[in-house]
Amino acid sequence: MTSILVDKDLLFDLLDSKLKLITDTINTLLSKWNYTSAELFLKHAADGTLQEAEPDAISLRNILDKRDELQELKISWSKN
């Protein structure tokens, strides 16, 4: 793994930009199905309330995981 020096403010700006894109993607996916809650959408996709939602539910789950990972990184880097 290669290490580089990066200005902390720039790093946080990049993280915030990525998190905004992820949030926009989440909102677009939820809007497609007329939902405002990711948890409710995932529940309805899993229990069959929403037919044919499985591919979007898988995508949403992956995007949510990525968002959580980036938020945890941001928190850990804020402590330094």
The major β-sheet equals: none
Q: Whole-number average pLDDT?
A: 95
Percent of residues in beta strands? under 5%
Helix content: over 70%
Description:
- The chain has 80 residues and is mainly α.
- The chain is built from 3 helices and no strands.
- The longest helix has 25 residues, at 8-32.
- The chain is elongated.
SSE layout and pairing:
Elements: H1 8-32, H2 38-47, H3 54-78
Helix pairs in contact: 1-3, 2-3
What attributes does this structure have?
80 residues; mainly alpha
In short:
The protein is an all-alpha fold.
